[in-house]
Amino acid sequence: MNNMINKQLEREPNRRVYYITIFAILLAFLIWSVTGVQFNGIDSRGSTIAGNIITGILSPDLEFLFEFSDEGVPYLLFETICIAFLGTIFGSVLAIPVAFLMSQSIVGPVLSFITRTLLVVIRTIPSFVYGLMFIRVTGPGAYAGVLTMSITSIGMVSKLYLDTIEEIDDGILEAMEAAGCNTFEKIRYGVIPQLFTNFLSTTIYRFDMNLRDATVLGLVGAGGIGAPLIFAMNSYRWSEVGSILIGLIILILVIEFISSKSREKLANG
């Protein structure tokens, strides 16, 4: 038995050189990256500001946290959710035809290549830049945030939709065609049931991401709770900062829990 194992090990290629080469390349990139970053340490006021932030979280402005006017934390969180939700819905709907146009088996290689190239361009531009662009077009506010979320959602969602489309079981469609089903019936009973669950799971996952992005977009004036957060920090109103952060933490935890449970239920049928 030992001789057989030794002979098997001798026949296997020696990958030591391969692993050493990969390690050397990664180490070289690590050293190169470190040399490209300037480490200035912590600012003299950094520890004080960090302490103020922690103090603000521990002693938040409760009146601001529970104020139900259009300037309170609940309303700002609601606006952030609305921006993320509408952006996700619009982006997900627009991503469906884009995903089909990306599939070579459906539209051919030429149109698929053009669509994929356009999608790469869309995905290359950060959401922060889209936010600044739409603010110049529509003015600051939630509308610019919704447009930004819609465009940025198309890039990722259509790519995941495409993976689902490519995995469609053609045998089901062939069986339905043999049974005399028309095109509408094949789409209704053969295509949609195979796509719906994964499409919905992808949409929920994207909403989870958009909720975090919507907070960041508020920093450039695209609506949501980000703008009041940066204003409070610039004005050193740390109790208000603490109230906003507490609201965000609770919101993200709740949405994360609901999102995980929903996608888990969809995955398990």
TrEMBL record:
This protein's UniProt keywords: Membrane, Transmembrane, Transmembrane helix, Transport
Record carries keyword Membrane: yes
Top-level taxon of origin: Bacteria
Membrane topology: Multi-pass membrane protein
TM spans (from-to): 17-35, 75-101, 113-135, 141-162, 214-232, 238-258
Entry-linked CDD domains: TM_PBP2
Domain ABC transmembrane type-1 intervals: 77-259
Predominant location: other
Keyword Transmembrane recorded: yes
Subcellular location: Cell envelope; Cell membrane; Membrane
Family (UniProt): Belongs to the binding-protein-dependent transport system permease family.
NCBIfam families registered for this protein in UniProt: PhnE
Protein name: Phosphonate ABC transporter, permease protein PhnE
Gene coding for it: phnE
